[in-house]
What does this fold into?
Amino acid sequence: MTSTTARKKDSLRPWAVGVWLVLWQGVSMLLTAVYPHGSLLLAPPVSAALRLCELLPALDFWRTILHSTARIFGGFLLSCILGVLLASLAAANRRVREFLAPAVLAVKTVPVASFIILALVWLDSDALSFFISALMVFPPVYLNVLEGIRQMDRQLLEMADVFHVPLRRRLWGIGVPQVYPYFRTAMSLALGLCWKAGAAAEVIGLPNGSIGERLYNAKIYLRTPDLFAWTAAIVTLSVALEKLCLLAADRLAGKAADEWNCKR
It folds into this structure.
């Protein structure tokens, strides 16, 4: 209840968005007044919105969106599965935790651009965004789930041992309710990271028919409205997928809790 209230308090407010749009428009007008081609440096929000409206009916726009989403979101899903599985193993075995620690630290600290350039030596550009997205998502999922398992109520686990509770019921009745808040936080953070890293990988790798290719072309041909239009598309996709994933995860966790309560 408290976390839900906190999320609502931290949500975007229309007035704040409006103020930033007015500031954006003001800076764009100032640049246009000072420089002959100031709109090339910062396109006004109206121009970006109109360009996005022009792109929306085009079949090529949606093909590009689906192409990039499949790879970036696919990397996110794969990394979530691996993060949960390896965090469970690491919580159960100290050697596994010690073995994974240097790799997790390296992924957390090494710049994304370094991984992208290195991955281009190994992978085709079409697989680059999938790999980079998965790589960037893994540390927050792994570390949050591992911390959630560590913070589980040991008395409940001991009680389950005493009463010989089956593994499946331990998982859904004790493990999921206690670890899920940590996993949910990791999902929210990781979805933003995967889109940032995936789009950066596409801009460098330039796979055909990707959002990164469109961003790069907008920069090359000085199409600033296109740059902001495609950026707005990325932001919208990231926010929409985050809402859908968290909603689906909340429902699955709630269903598991209801099933557990019915069997008690």
Summary: DSSP finds twelve helices and no strands in the chain.
